[in-house]
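Quick question, first post here. What does this chain look like in 3D?
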Amino acid sequence: MIALCGSLVFFNRESDGPVSQAQTTEAPPAMRRMVYWVALAFVPSALMIAVTTHITTDVAAAPFLWVLPLSLYLISFILVFSQRSYISQATWMKAQPVLLALIVLTLALDIRTWLMIDVGLHLLTFFVTAMICHGLIAATRPQASHLTRFYFCMSLGGVLGGIFSGLIAPNIFSWIAEYPVLIVAAALARPGSSLPKAKEIGLAIGFIVLVLLVSLPGYREGFTLLPTANWIVWAAVLLLVAGALLLSASPLRLAVLFAAAFIVTRAYPPNVRHLETVRSFFGVHKIEVTEDGRFRVLRHGMELHGAQRLTTDDGKPVTGRPVLSTYYHPDSPIAEAIDAVQDKKKGPVRIAVIGLGGGSIACLAKPQDRLDYYEIDADVIRIAKDPKRFTFLRDCKPDTNITLGDARLTLANATEARYDLIIVDAFSSDSIPVHLLTREALRIYLSRLNPDGIIVAHISNNHLDLSGVVAATAASEGLLARIYDEDEKPNLDPMIKFSTVMVLARNDNDLGLLQDWDVEKPAPGQAPWSDDFSNLLGPLIAKMKKDSE
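> Answer (accepted):
Ran it through. Tokens below.
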């Protein structure tokens, strides 16, 4: 229909009425100007998708997070084309270099702070960039007679930006390279201006002096303003911010500075000897060897999904059965839950695990046990099966069965399967897929559970406290809930991670040795999650309250 309307207008142009003289005083936009509009529209559109991907990877793919970058994107159009100017373009221009520098460091060094700060920083930087790019577009729009061409160029840039981040980048990059690329592009999109003013030079020099103070060994121990343990990170922050202020007047130099930071940290990743990335529809998987060479680890986003010890503390290669660590160490809640089921059954145990990771749980099963993995990502399966990367499956349970697909669908289709233990351990970076914790999901698990079987849910999360939600959903299906929130304690193995795990059962007798776990009751007013209702704000607020106690 749009094409039909366009053709009608195109073929009836000669029948239009006379054009006023005021509309013809400006020459048609040159090709260079049109390309400029397309480029300026491209950056915010592509950046919006990259920011959305980044902030939803570590929390959850939730609509309230999807809508934030989109809302800011649309608001920027409203503001720049409004006749009233609430904040001047010069203010956005001054704020952007510092914000971009902070984003560069968080991405390059994998820095993570509090959720609100992380999300707020990325959204603010995106919004400021959108205001600058869209503001430049609005400031250079032509007279009314050429607005059709102007809006077409602006729309074309938006479409191309979406195609780049949504379709092209996932297929040409093995990691989320589009975000750093677009940060550099945002710096290039700044208009050139005069040399830095005296205040900016003075502020930059002050940052550099502060970096030197923090870096000098003689001053570091007594310097109380910055955390001494993170002095290298703080030095990098201050130095890059100072450089951004000094180079803010030159878009090209600023872009080169940011590109150099990304290239150096990509070529020489901090605390990592070797870095391999595998990108799939579900995110980026990093296979790393730690700086000391003792561990090979699997990460999705920033979160560990498994680690295998390569050498002993004295540098000798590890042979034989893999040594377990991360969330699956021998004293972990997941290990304790598997032990409890094995003790109760006094024979072969059939275990289903939703989420493969590196395959660590295979080494918690006994040779006579039956282990079925349900994994949605084919690349994760290839990584776990590759003995050059991880050997948990090969050395512990070579007969493990792995089913590819969404666990709810594949479990529902496994009509003959019956399990003594179902473990829900499906992480996407630091988030747990919501659809695996709903009432409908629990009903599927229960339909595949033996009469005395139990369900174990790994709910460790940096940003969400899911215990109340899981307890409420379990109660709605008539299940008991117990929780083991593992206390952090000093340990000699740096790869030991402490987890929060819940067990759901039909009655107390099914819990076996897990009856001493703490009883977890639904949070007051907490509604069970279903396929029609889920609310991540509640667990988010609960986590913030818990951390503040």
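Residues 206 and 321 are 55 Å apart (CA to CA).
The longest helix spans residues 31-57.
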